[in-house]
């Protein structure tokens, strides 16, 4: 299903002959000022804290963290201009089954509103279950707004969304493929790749998982099975999502509403989308919701964190086609003694992108970066944990499409305890991965090298 969808997307691009100026990503020198003095801005439900209050709060929250955490938070704010949000509970959700259960449970408990934004909403078993829940909640008087991407849902029958609309659900197809559906504002190359669900303005979900049975096929994560004992027919999908409760939910709610409004799809039904949000936990987060007309905040936050890494960089990437700056930053980190480990696809739903990413392996391996390929699972997670204190989970891949062309959302969690959980998850993925050594990689066939070179020629667009 995913291969067909990607193939259709590439075919559409070729058909219309999309030509756009190649927007460049910002350089590291332009992201931050030389000083790391000061206190990061901290937002709450009642507004931004004064510097003294913010300093006191962060001192309590980060009591066991190294001094580097505050400096990193300041640099990241300089780069992104996005404040930290305090008082949140952030729960990790691994793979489709656990995530779908949690999302469906939250949707069933809704009393005022459900806002769902997703790249893919398939007409399959999971999609049908989700649709039935949304229609049932609408009958109970809950306002339900659904935003799906025009390309991501190319394979979904129109009748599926007509059924949702007939059930009272407001459905918006984001940047439709048909130019007559949005005359004068056709933006085929800008896709809504976000995955957001906000319930009652109080609980939010985001990460890498779409609404589809494909993504609900669990991987070996935390399974006692060994990869060598699993048949090819048992290949699952490895992904990561998070559930957020607390003031940061409002930032994700705002991202949804802002995207809806900018599509000029009419006013959303009147309901209290922004209820009072009391602190629900002790996590301090930064919500980065990016779009093509913004300044690549997700990219900036990642580059700053990599450049400031002191001990470790553990990055898990479903689609890894980095730009020159990220490659250089990873190698520079490895050469200054940072443990740089990447978990990348061993099994992929799109070999073309996998080959493009593999074209960087020689340089990365020679630079001291260790690469592991996840076995017997299609890798779809987009996560990073640096120094055990800076974690990022979201929809953005490590490629120019995510950083420049797409609408994406990543959540950065600055917290040692959460980082510890992220490190444990990374080690679990390593257990089911095979390391790619430089010696073995140099012996790969010339046919693979040619495929890598050809794939890399299109790295800007894939």
Written description of the protein model:
- The chain is of the alpha/beta class.
- Helix content is 36%, strand content 23%.
- It has two domains: 23-86 and 284-456, Endonuclease, Chain A (2-Layer Sandwich); 90-262, Endonuclease Chain A (Endonuclease, Chain A, 2-Layer Sandwich).
- The chain has helices at residues 2-16, 51-61, 68-80, 95-108, 125-139, 158-166, 249-262, 297-308, 324-335, 351-358, 361-366, 400-405, 416-431, 438-441, 446-456; strands spanning 42-44, 47-48, 84-94, 113-118, 143-149, 170-174, 196-199, 203-207, 236-238, 240-245, 283-290, 312-317, 339-347, 370-379, 382-386, 390-394, 408-414, 433-436.
- Strand 12, helix 9 and strand 13 (339-347) form a beta-alpha-beta unit.
- The model is unreliable at 14-21 (pLDDT under 50).
Give a topology summary.
Layout: H1 2-16, E1 42-44, E2 47-48, H2 51-61, H3 68-80, E3 84-94, H4 95-108, E4 113-118, H5 125-139, E5 143-149, H6 158-166, E6 170-174, E7 196-199, E8 203-207, E9 236-238, E10 240-245, H7 249-262, E11 283-290, H8 297-308, E12 312-317, H9 324-335, E13 339-347, H10 351-358, H11 361-366, E14 370-379, E15 382-386, E16 390-394, H12 400-405, E17 408-414, H13 416-431, E18 433-436, H14 438-441, H15 446-456
Parallel strand pairs: 1-3, 4-5, 5-6, 9-14, 12-13, 13-14
Antiparallel strand pairs: 1-2, 3-10, 3-11, 4-7, 7-8, 8-10, 11-17, 12-15, 14-18, 15-16, 16-17
């Amino acid at each position: 299903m995913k291969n067909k969808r990607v193939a259709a997307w590439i075919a559409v691009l070729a058909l219309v002959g999309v030509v756009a100026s190649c927007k460049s990503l910002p350089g590291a020198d332009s992201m931050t000022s030389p000083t790391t003095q000061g206190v990061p801005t901290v937002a709450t439900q009642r507004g931004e804290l004064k510097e003294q209050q913010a300093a006191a709060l962060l001192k309590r929250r980060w009591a066991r963290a190294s001094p580097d955490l505050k400096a990193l938070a300041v640099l990241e704010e300089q780069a992104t201009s996005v404040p930290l949000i305090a008082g949140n509970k952030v729960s990790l959700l691994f793979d489709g089954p656990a995530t779908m259960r949690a999302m469906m449970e939250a949707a069933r408990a809704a009393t005022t509103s459900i806002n769902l934004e997703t790249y893919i909403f398939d007409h399959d078993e999971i999609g049908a279950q989700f649709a039935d829940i949304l229609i049932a909640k609408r009958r109970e008087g809950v306002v339900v707004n659904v935003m799906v991407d025009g390309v991501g849902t190319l394979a979904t029958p129109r009748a599926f969304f007509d059924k949702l609309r007939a059930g009272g659900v407001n459905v918006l197809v984001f940047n439709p493929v048909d130019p007559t559906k949005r005359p004068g504002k056709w933006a085929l190359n800008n896709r809504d790749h976000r995955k957001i669900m906000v319930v009652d303005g109080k609980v939010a979900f985001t990460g890498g998982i779409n609404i589809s049975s494909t993504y609900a096929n669990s991987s070996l994560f935390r399974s006692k099975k060994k990869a060598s004992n699993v048949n090819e027919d048992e290949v699952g999908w490895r992904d990561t999502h998070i559930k957020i409760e607390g003031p940061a939910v409002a930032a994700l709610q705002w991202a949804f509403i802002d995207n809806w409004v900018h599509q000029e799809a009419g006013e959303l039904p009147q309901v209290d989308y922004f209820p009072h949000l009391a602190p629900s936990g002790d996590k301090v987060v930064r919500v980065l919701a990016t779009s093509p007309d913004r300044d690549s905040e997700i990219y900036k936050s990642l580059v700053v964190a990599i450049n400031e890494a002191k001990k470790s960089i553990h990055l898990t990437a479903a689609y890894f086609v980095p730009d020159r700056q990220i490659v250089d930053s990873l190698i520079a980190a490895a050469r200054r003694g940072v443990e740089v480990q990447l978990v990348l696809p061993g099994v992929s739903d799109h070999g073309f992108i996998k080959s493009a990413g593999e074209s960087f392996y020689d340089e990365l391996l020679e630079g001291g970066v260790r690469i592991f390929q996840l076995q017997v699972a299609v890798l779809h997670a987009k996560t990073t944990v640096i120094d055990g204190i800076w974690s990022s989970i979201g929809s953005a891949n490590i490629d120019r499409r995510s950083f420049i062309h797409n609408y994406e959302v990543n959540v950065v969690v600055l917290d040692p305890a959460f980082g510890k959980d992220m490190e444990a998850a990374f080690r679990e993925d390593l257990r089911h991965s095979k390391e790619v050594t430089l010696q073995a990689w140099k012996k790969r066939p010339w046919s693979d090298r040619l495929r890598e070179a050809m794939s890399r020629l299109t790295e800007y667009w894939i």
